[in-house]
Amino acid sequence: MSSSPQDQLDRTLEEYRRKREDLRGLHERMARISATVTAPRKVVSITVGQQGDVTALTFPSGAYKSMVPAELAAVVLETVRQAQAKVREELATMMEPMMPPGFAVRDLLAGKADLDRLLPDEPGLDGVFLRRDGQ
């Protein structure tokens, strides 16, 4: 059963509006994302925001007092890396449903994505428009 060009256009516009609303909601959730990681022995606890920026750093115990500066620095840096990785993983999980099938979100977040696969030279418009002969 075929439908009129107007019906096809109406369905396409409705799908576009739904996807746009989904994307708006995703954007709002992404703006609020953060991750907190606490190092072993509670040496340091670090929170990072969506972009991986440190938003909080606390020393929940006195364990850091017995550490030499280089050791403490290494623990702080490793904890920051773990918090950043946690945020990236949460972002990837959020974004995955919005990506085309087979597109690796984690590659996108790591800067290794195949952008031609995400945005090909020619968009796929199969089934959106009818040929002039009505088919």
Q: List unreliable stretches of 5+ residues.
A: none
Order of helices and strands: HEEEHHH
* CA-based gyration radius: 23 Å
Mean pLDDT: 86
Structural category: mainly alpha
How does this structure look, described?
There is one protein chain. The chain is elongated, with a radius of gyration of 23 Å. The termini are close together. The protein has a three-stranded antiparallel β-sheet with strand order 1-2-3, covered by helices on one side. It contains four helices and three strands. The relative contact order is 0.12. The protein has helices spanning 5-32, 69-95, 105-109, 115-118, and strands spanning 34-38, 45-49, 54-58. The chain has a domain at 34-118: Ybab, Chain: A (2-Layer Sandwich). A hairpin with a 6-residue loop joins strand 1 (34-38) and strand 2 (45-49).
List its salient traits.
elongated; single chain; Ybab, Chain: A; mainly alpha; three-stranded antiparallel sheet; 135 residues
Produce a short descriptive summary:
By secondary structure, the chain is mostly helical.
